Amino acid sequence: SAVISQKPSRDICQRGTSLTIQCQVDSQVTMMFWYRQQPGQSLTLIATANQGSEATYESGFVIDKFPISRPNLTFSTLTVSNMSPEDSSIYLCSVAVNGANVLTFGAGSRLTVL
Amino acid sequence: GIQVEQSPPDLILQEGANSTLRCNFSDSVNNLQWFHQNPWGQLINLFYIPSGTKQNGRLSATTVATERYSLLYISSSQTTDSGVYFCAVPLYSGGGADGLTFGKGTHLIIQP
Q1: Residue pair B74/B19 in contact by the 8 Å Cβ criterion
Q2: Chain B: nearest CA to A95, how far in angstroms?
């Protein structure tokens, strides 16, 4: 399975600021997925990021709030824009290695917004 | 989209006990995965099991696709089994590994 590195692992941010989370994979993958896990809750898919095309966002998530970049087959970033305390969550990057159906997750980025 | 329900929501057991966790889903799926999230937040894929039965050490899983449920069995529980167990299926019927939707999870506590 793929090895995923996420940065930062945690951060404390001020209301109104933006933060970019990086996700690096040790192998080339077609699709990368960004999930959000609010405190004590399950995971919710934010968007799917394909290299060379716009990310596909799920209902309730918009590009202006969560812009995503996918410059190559091993890297993606998720920005959480104009943060509010409600954005305090763990943000997780995941991939399905090409040709496989099994999802692997990074360790997550735990954001606290004050 | 496909709905996923997990039960029980919480489970407290003594070390050495066995347990069965259940996942019901609302439509046919070609992908079902079980995950364990440890107390530090790391998600580990336990099984990819759209149908049939698989075993990995003390853990096993069975999916009955025609009846739209899956079971995760944990035998001889250890304290390291504590955490949250999630079941996940495609967001939409016919989906593969892309766009998984997760159940609310079963929070398992194993006491020494």
Answers
A1: yes
A2: 9
Element (H, E) at A114: none
- Chain centroid offset of residue A39 CA: 16
Instruction: Report chain B residues whose CB lies below 8 A from the CB of A41.
Output: 104
Residue among B41, B45, B86 minimizing CB distance to A90: B41
Banded pLDDT at A30 (limits 50, 70, 90): confident
Name the closest residue on chain B to residue A46, using Cα atoms: B99
Provide mean pLDDT across the span B93-103.
75
List CB contacts of A62: < 8 A, sequence separation 6 or more.
none
Pairing mode, strands A89-96 and A4-7: unpaired
* Residue range B40-93, pLDDT digits in tens: 899 999 999 999 999 999 999 999 999 999 999 999 999 999 999 999 998 876
